[in-house]
Write a structure and sequence with these properties.
CATH superfamily of the largest domain: DD-peptidase/beta-lactamase superfamily
Distance between the termini: 92 Å
Strand content: 25-35%
Structural class: alpha+beta
């Protein structure tokens, strides 16, 4: 056999090296795929042969400071479909549409769409879910879901905010603490073949969701009730555009209440509570409608600034006393006008009958503008600006609510003209937010410490363990304790002798200051439009609360703070201090008239006639918030609650929303949002039989509210579990 030629050898060697090169390249490629791209490709493959449905976590609860649930998640269900698993789409669509009350064509489109998983309907009832499950429809899955629910409707809506359909926080605490409340989603995973059909031999895997943390507010539900009730009454009585009431613990900065009226229901945040507005908005273009929504959701105490008027004199007074340019006895003179400021002529509010000679204390009592212009001049630009900034104006307070405004102050002491210094001294030419003002006045009340307003106290887990605490925070010292005590004494005389007399409450030493300011609209003072306010501290000998009432555009005649705002402050402070068990300290004269406390009786589930006789017999007056009261109307709730001790002659609010026709006929009450215990108590008192399903709060009832029933009726109530 002849030996291979040199050319053949070369070809063989070349072929060998080529094969080796190919093998080497393949080895490198395989190594790259396995080592470098392995995890990524594995994930992609997993996604190809698995399909999953997200399991939403249980959103954390929002509690008041005493554990009252203000925002919860209730059990619900969501219907999903996997189109490739649906064998009979026409009949499936028909059955699903019938049970869920949907359009059959819409359902058919959803279940035949080219997608691995699709959502058919969110938040269906337990009854609907049970019916669907009984049908055992291939490719139709019912997954546990949860829906955000606010048991008390519009209550504290500006504090709580609301969520979207996916449980993302949009406003208020829901937004600020969204990342804590949300939790971590889980997933329900199933293995599929190349066509997307579930593999029959392989099991399912459920990756549990991690529940969100719950938020404990500094807000007190009972004190919030006092504020909301007073705000609504004031809004209606004064035909105002807006009424806001804030109540703060000056020692901690805790915001105990923040109420604004009108408000909205976070369960349905895009629909106004006023039926007239609802009708007006019905045909609005989308862009205009959205503007209406945003205006409705604005939280005035946080999101808007206004000229404070004479309530700002508290700050000017604090600066003057701290800098020793004035004492309580420093003499001043008011002739009605300030005429020596170049290019301006200012006047006291009582220019027509000047105050004449007065001490500084009397000037505060009289809210005399001339006194405060003189004080501002004594302080000068630098010192006045120092205290404006020191008390927190021109910057946000840091409260944990979205959209806080910083207000408007001069850019620097140098930018303040003589006219600016003069008007700012009595609260004009400067814009503040209510939260800034109450925080600043709290510093006066607590001995001089400017606190950071606290709206959230703690974050807790599902077992109630504290995960994080938000401790009270002192931002800085602004005045001395001595100045604080002196000013508190002066402010007390405003209520006892001055313009704030209508804030007087027997047994409680209250200090305060009125405020009435013409509104600025489009850079100009608007004729006939005012913002009226009153700020108060109580008791001045041991401050427990600071209250601020702001009435925007009262239009029922009176608009002075001492006339329409002061009585509101007196009311909420009286109710709050009694609730806080702050013992009143009556003078001898007050003891004779006001120290006879009477226990509030329980008149719930009695007719208004029966309740009225009981109230009158004990010396109480009573009020109903229902405009149309009939002879046989029934009391379903009352405030103050039974057992509360109040002064004889106090006004008890009675709430009527059902009526008993006779002994055998009853109007079915609304059970929505009540717990099992609350529902049992109410139905037992009405002598009604009942059947319950589930746990938590009542979400469905039969008969529905307002239905006329008799004592033989059995009430069916469905409860949905509260997500803890």
């Amino acid at each position: 056999m002849p030996a291979p030629s040199n050319s053949s050898k070369r070809r063989l060697i070349f072929a060998l090296f080529a094969v080796l090169a190919i093998v080497f390249a393949l080895t490198i490629r395989i190594g790259y795929i396995q080592i470098v791209k392995g995890e990524e490709l594995k994930k992609g493959a997993l996604e190809q042969w698995t399909k999953g449905i997200e399991i939403k976590p249980k959103r954390g609860i929002i509690y008041d400071k005493n554990g009252k649930k203000l925002a919860v998640s209730i059990s619900s269900y969501t219907v999903w479909c996997t189109p490739v698993d649906i064998k009979e789409p026409e009949s499936t669509a028909k059955k699903v549409a019938e049970i869920l009350d949907m359009d059959e064509k819409v359902v058919f489109e959803k279940i035949t769409k080219k997608q691995s998983v699709g959502k058919i309907k969110q938040w269906i009832s337990k009854e609907e879910a049970d019916k669907l499950r009984k049908e055992k429809l291939s490719g139709i899955e019912i997954v546990d879901d949860n829906k955000r629910y606010y048991p008390y409707g519009s209550f504290a809506s500006y504090v709580l905010g609301f969520t979207d359909v996916d449980n993302n926080g949009l406003y208020g605490i829901e937004r600020t603490f969204d990342k804590y409340l949300t939790g971590t989603p889980g997933k329900w995973v199933k293995t599929t073949d190349a066509a997307g059909r579930q593999m029959p031999y392989d099991g399912e895997k459920l990756y549990e969701a991690k529940d969100g943390l719950s938020v404990v507010l500094a807000l007190d539900e009972t004190i919030q009730h006092f504020a909301e009730k007073a705000a609504l009454e004031t809004l209606v009585k004064n035909k105002a555009k807006n009424v806001s009431i804030l109540i703060m613990d000056p020692n901690t900065g805790d915001l105990l209440a923040m109420a604004s009226k009108p408000d909205y229901d976070p369960n349905n945040p895009r629909e106004p509570l006023d039926p007239k507005l609802k009708e007006q908005w019905k045909d609005l273009p989308q862009q205009e409608l959205e503007k209406k929504w945003y205006d409705m959701w604005r939280n005035f105490p946080i999101n808007d600034a206004y000229e404070p008027g004479s309530t700002f004199k508290i700050i000017t007074s604090a600066a003057g006393l701290e800098e020793n340019v004035v004492t309580p006895e420093t003499p001043f003179y008011c002739d009605g006008f300030i005429t020596d400021i170049p290019g301006a002529k200012l006047k006291c509010w009582r220019w027509y009958n000047p105050h004449g000679a007065q001490t500084f204390t009397q000037g505060v009592q009289n809210s005399c503008n001339e006194v405060f212009v003189a004080l501002g001049r004594k302080l000068g630009n630098d010192r006045m600006y120092k205290y404006i900034k020191g008390f927190g104006f021109g910057e946000t307070t840091g409260i944990d609510l979205p959209g806080e405004q910083a207000g408007i102050i001069p850019h620097s002491p140098q930018s303040m003209k003589e006219i600016n210094l003069a008007t700012i001294s009595y609260g004009q030419g400067i814009a503040v937010t209510p939260i800034q003002l109450i925080t600043a006045i709290s510093a006066v009340a607590n001995g001089g410490n400017l606190m950071k307003p606290r709206i959230v106290k703690e974050l807790i887990d599902t077992d109630g363990n504290v995960v994080h605490s938000f401790e009270p925070e002192i931002r800085r010292k602004v005045i001395s304790k001595e100045t604080s005590e002196t000013l508190l004494g002066i402010l007390e005389t405003v209520v006892s002798k001055g313009t704030g007399k209508k804030a007087y409450v027997p047994g409680y030493r209250i200090g305060g200051k009125t405020g009435t300011a013409q509104k600025v609209i489009d850079g100009k003072y608007a004729q006939g439009k005012y913002i009226t306010s009153f700020a108060a501290i109580a008791p001045v000998n041991d401050p427990k609360v600071v209250a601020l009432v702001v009435i925007d555009e009262p239009s029922n005649g009176a608009y002075y703070g001492g006339v329409i705002a002061a009585p509101v402050v007196g009311q909420v402070i009286s109710e709050t201090l009694k609730y806080m068990d702050v013992e009143p300290q009556f003078t001898e004269k007050e003891k004779e008239e006001f120290n006879k406390l009477v226990v509030v009786p329980d008149v719930r589930n009695k007719t208004i006639v029966e309740a009225g006789k009981i109230m009158n017999g004990l010396g109480f007056m009573y009020n109903t918030e229902t405009p149309e009261v009939e002879y046989n109307s029934v009391v379903i709730d009352q405030f103050p609650l039974p057992g509360t001790k109040v002064n004889k002659g106090s006004i008890i609010d009675l709430y009527l929303n059902n009526k008993r026709i006779d002994d055998s006929n009853i109007i079915m009450p609304d059970l929505t949002g009540k717990t099992r215990d609350e529902t049992i108590k109410l139905l037992d008192e009405l002598n009604l039989k009942y059947n319950f399903k589930g746990n938590g709060v009542a979400t469905n009832q039969e008969p529905v509210k307002g239905t006329e029933i008799n004592s033989d009726t059995t009430v069916e109530v469905e409860f949905s579990e509260i997500k803890e």
